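#lab-general

N.A. 3:47 PM
ok so I finally got the sequence cleaned up, no stray characters, all 100 residues accounted for. can someone with queue access submit it? mine expired

B.Y. 3:52 PM
send it over

N.A. 3:53 PM
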Amino acid sequence: MSKIQTFRPAEKIYKIGDVECPVRASDAPPNFVDLVIENRHCNGNVYLSLASLAIDGTNVPEVQIVSRLRMSLVIAQHMRDLLTEVIDLALKPVDKKHAN
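B.Y. 4:20 PM
back already:
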């Protein structure tokens, strides 16, 4: 099995092993996620539903589902590893002797 590579936004080709796959950009807007409203697994797949909370003045707050993700456990583990890496970098203290 080939190693999964991470896509960087500036690239137009996503390489999986020796196979180069062109990336088609969708017009889906980025959504800010406030809530995880579904998280379960079934038959080797992980199900996640992400939502955004809208509170507008005195109106009743509304939860808008912005994405329903379905993925294999392999991709879920890869996503976990990527999130761990990003979170660790974000929480790393600033080395003040190297700051501007």
